[in-house]
Write a structure and sequence with these properties.
The structure is a single chain. By secondary structure, the protein is α/β, with parallel strands linked by helices. It has helices spanning 65-70, 106-121, 135-149, 153-162, 182-190, 206-213, and strands at 12-15, 56-60, 75-79, 128-131, 164-165, 200-204, 222-226, 232-239. Strands 1-2-8-7-3-6-4-5 form an eight-stranded mixed β-sheet. A hairpin with a 5-residue loop joins β7 and β8 (232-239). α2 (106-121) crosses α3 and α3 (135-149) packs antiparallel against α4. The longest helix is centred in the middle third of the chain and has 16 residues, at 106-121. The radius of gyration is 17 Å and the shape is globular. 46% of the residues are buried.
């Protein structure tokens, strides 16, 4: 069973083709439909996507929308995008050995581009990105920036130039991995908004995020942490299409989430 905000069972969705895009400092244009859920429809789906329904960005709780998406001093703690679980990491594989580890699936690449488009359209792109060395994390960064670039080219270029690869974010306790989450915790705690052009985005792994927050996150999902509140999780966002993966979830126990 997933923990935290997923227990609310509902989420808020923003469209890929929102009729009214957020301006700097504005709350994203979203329609509330219930206490924790709202939605904006879209017909735009990335080329090659095999989805019958339009892709959207979901988040909750609704009550935290302004703090989650207008503050520069929060941290988006993200798990890498959807991967191909038919190929697992080989024993003792190095983080940069992409031929012998699990990497993003074709659909996962599209999903991460869609995520970048959604974030940029709604003016919630990060101001700084820090990422694990592992190939699936680096691929997530690349595809996310491709999506952002379709809406905000200069923003994407700046993020690509300033992105930091950090071994302390590598898969916890693995080969060349992080021995603990002390480095991750310190990085989150020290974030104060940077240059004021967006939150910090940290792209890490399931085990690292679970160890730091106790939350179980889907591939491509981001928790929103507030350093001013002792790194408290104040919300989350993910694509509507995000699903529990076979590596870290009991799919049958999480079947209810597929209908959200």
């Amino acid at each position: 069973m997933k923990t935290g905000f997923h227990l609310f069972g509902m989420a808020l969705a923003l469209s890929l083709a929102a009729p009214g895009l957020a301006q700097d400092g504005d709350v994203p244009d979203a329609r509330q439909m219930s206490t924790h859920m709202g939605e904006m429809a879209s017909e735009l789906v990335a080329p090659g996507a095999e989805r019958k329904e339009p892709e959207t960005l979901r988040f909750e709780p609704w009550q935290m929308i302004e703090e989650m998406f207008t503050r520069d001093d929060v941290v988006y703690l993200m798990r890498h995008g959807p991967t191909d679980w038919s190929k697992l990491d080989e024993k003792d594989v190095a983080p940069t050995d992409c031929e012998n580890q699990r990497v993003l699936s074709d659909q996962g690449r599209i999903d991460m581009q869609n995520l970048g488009i959604l974030m940029a359209h709604n003016d919630i792109a990060p101001g700084q990105i820090v990422v694990s060395e592992w190939c699936r994390n680096q691929q997530t960064l690349d595809e996310l920036l491709e999506g952002i670039a379709t809406v905000k080219t200069e923003k994407a270029d700046h993020l690509r130039e300033t992105a930091i690869t950090e071994p302390d974010l590598n898969l916890l306790l693995s080969l060349q991995g992080a021995p603990n989450v002390s480095g991750l915790r310190e990085r989150v705690s020290d974030w104060d908004g940077g240059e004021g052009d967006g939150p910090l985005l940290v792209i890490s792994h399931f085990t690292n995020i679970e160890e730091l927050t106790t939350f179980h996150v889907y591939e491509g999902e981001s928790l929103v942490l507030d350093p001013d509140r002792d790194n408290r999780v104040i919300g989350y966002f993910r694509l509507r299409s995000a699903e529990p993966d076979v590596g870290h979830f009991d799919i049958e126990d999480n079947a209810a989430y597929d209908d959200q």
